[in-house]
Design goal:
With 218 residues, this protein is mainly β. The protein has one domain: Roll (Pnp Oxidase, Chain A), CATH 2.30.110. The chain is 11% helix and 34% strand. The chain is built from three helices and nine strands; from the N terminus they run βββββαβααβββ. Strand 3 and strand 4 form a beta hairpin. It is globular.
Length: 218
């Protein structure tokens, strides 16, 4: 018997990224922007070694501290959309005590945010359509009328990677060269404190904009 569609691995090009923020000049949800690339997702645990007397040929190994590498987000550079730059510069405002939601002796949390990467169903078939029910529509750019993905679109999510306490540690721009025909790229580098992978069919539910519309982490 031929393999069914559900046995295929997920596609890496069908995704959206949801970053709820409360920074002035930044839309409350960056999902509507769209990113061309999200890269450098990974976690490594350090190895602690020690040598035990009487066993001098090998070393014992124990798990130490785990850490994640910076996350890279890339998208085209748009003249009318300064959201990534605004988020990045909020770091300087907070450092000088004038950031959004800053309170003396408490500090600001506005520049940090939990966020999640939705990996969506592909290909979009008639079987997928029937699962959405009447009026369902697919894709990663539609909304339920409020700039957020509708409930039926959330049902297209097959897996989700949740990043905790993310904030922009760097921003860079592609080289400009008149001899090429390239698109200008804006790249944001994020520091964060851990991530979790959630899959459809598991006991853990997916995050949605409605359930986590203003998730700011202290």
């Amino acid at each position: 018997m031929a393999r069914v569609l559900a046995s295929d691995p997920l596609r890496s090009f069908k995704f959206n990224l949801n970053i709820p923020l409360q920074v002035p000049g930044v839309k409350q949800n960056l999902l509507t922007i769209g990113f061309a690339q999200v890269s450098s997702i990974g976690l490594t645990t350090q190895v602690i070694t020690y040598q035990e007397g009487g066993d001098n040929t090998t070393t014992r190994k124990m798990p130490g501290t785990s850490d994640v590498q910076p996350l890279q987000l890339a998208r085209g550079l748009f003249a009318s959309d300064p959201q990534l730059w605004t988020w990045f510069t909020e770091i300087f405002d907070v450092s000088y005590g004038s950031g959004a939601n800053y309170q003396r002796n408490i500090g600001s949390t506005a520049f940090r945010s939990d966020m999640w990467l939705n990996i969506l169903a592909h290909p979009y078939t008639s079987a997928t359509q029937s699962q959405l029910g009447p009026g369902g529509s697919g894709g990663s750019s539609g909304s339920g009328g409020s700039g957020q993905p509708s409930f039926v679109q959330q049902r297209l999510v097959q897996a989700q990677i949740v990043f905790y306490s993310a904030w922009p540690m760097g921003i860079s721009y592609s080289d400009f060269d008149a001899t090429t025909n390239n698109v200008a790229i804006e790249q944001l580098t994020l520091a964060y404190e851990g991530f979790e992978v959630r899959r459809s069919g598991s006991a853990t539910s997916f995050l949605t904009p409605d359930a986590m519309s203003t998730s700011l982490v202290a």
